[in-house]
Amino acid sequence: MKSKTSLFVLLGLGVAATTTACDPEPPPPDRLYLRQLNKGPAGTTLTFVQDAASRPEIADSASLVVGSALAIDCDEYAQQDYRSQCTAMVVKADQPIVQVRQVYRPTSDASLAATSAFALVGVTAGTTIVHVTTAYNSYDFTVHVRP
Amino acid sequence: MGASACGADAGELGQGGVSTECDSFGGDCTLGGINHPIAVGATLPVTVDSAVFGASAPELTLASGRESVLTAEGQNITAHSEGLAPIFIGVAGGEAVLDFIHVRAARADNLKFAIALADGTDLKEQSTLIQLVPNEYIWAEVAPFKGIAPLVGRMPLQWSSSSAAVTILKTGASNRVRVIARSAGTATVTASALGISATFEIEVLP
């Protein structure tokens, strides 16, 4: 009986050691990835940073016209290999010239719980900073709303 | 002539959409959706669809992102002033949206008729005097336009005839009537909506 218990303990340790060695915890994401989801009417764009070779996909400004909506998907990356949907995302605008709405992006299991995307709606003409904050990262970009 | 169901108009995120009914002018669905502005003062009924495969169909709602231009109530979109607005398709009880479309509103400046004989033959040349004999009838349908651009939406319409030579019968479709020849004479048929009106002439032969 004593030997059986020892065997189970050893097996358990072996499994734990194997799990730790082959399936390490992914590192926390260190950058955001914003992607324009809809084409929208003329004048609705997300402008990409051209000179940041290491982060070419990150937007630094968005343009809207009053009454248009721009949907933006948010992913987070850690190193090169890990990508995940933005978690606990909060999006806020400094000025009420845009309205922010959460957008459902169903995951592969068709869950309607995934809300790692958002839409900006142009309310009035002007410029504002929009802050995207997740559990790990934050990112600000400028939004221009044209009449 | 008349309304028929259009294909689904996919939302901009591919997760939902709306569809409308065609009218005789093709205004609601030339390319498969709301491809023309809604006339200010008019209401467009739509059917809302979800394209989320694998999920049990949630109850969907419509909401406008700019209520000074368009409002959404139930499955109707009403235009209040000229401009552009996003119409969001959302899940009932939730604040997040599933998809959206952009819809324009424009003010109509003229009404155009589509007229067909009882057998369904369209009368393309509406400026020509229409001649009927007693008990013959035609179908008349009217739609709002801005210049030459067709607009869409159901509007409060009033039909009238200048004489008893014809009788105007409602059909149940708000923008379509049946005009029946009654007795010899001429009549001017007038349709009025959105502060504008249009006419066509009918001569009833003995």
Topology:
The complex is a heterodimer of chains A (147) and B (206).
Chain A: H1 2-22, E1 31-36, E2 45-48, E3 59-65, E4 69-78, E5 82-85, E6 90-93, E7 98-103, E8 117-122, E9 126-133, E10 138-146
Parallel strand pairs in A: 3-10
Antiparallel strand pairs in A: 1-4, 2-3, 4-5, 4-8, 6-9, 7-8, 9-10
Chain B: E1 4-5, E2 9-10, E3 16-19, E4 21-22, E5 38-39, E6 43-45, E7 47-50, E8 60-64, E9 70-73, E10 76-79, E11 83-91, E12 97-106, E13 110-117, E14 122-123, E15 130-132, E16 137-146, E17 149-150, E18 158-161, E19 166-170, E20 176-181, E21 185-193, E22 196-204
Parallel strand pairs in B: 5-12, 15-22
Antiparallel strand pairs in B: 1-4, 2-3, 3-7, 6-10, 8-11, 9-10, 11-12, 13-14, 13-16, 16-17, 16-20, 18-21, 19-20, 21-22
Can you describe this structure in just a few lines?
The complex is a heterodimer of chains A (147) and B (206). Chain A is mainly β and 147 residues long.
Question: How much β-strand is present in the residues of chain B?
Answer: over 45%
Any idea what the shape of chain A is? elongated
Order of helices and strands of chain B: EEEEEEEEEEEEEEEEEEEEEE
Distance between the termini of chain B: 28 Å
Radius of gyration of chain B: 19 Å
* Computed Rg of chain A: 21 Å
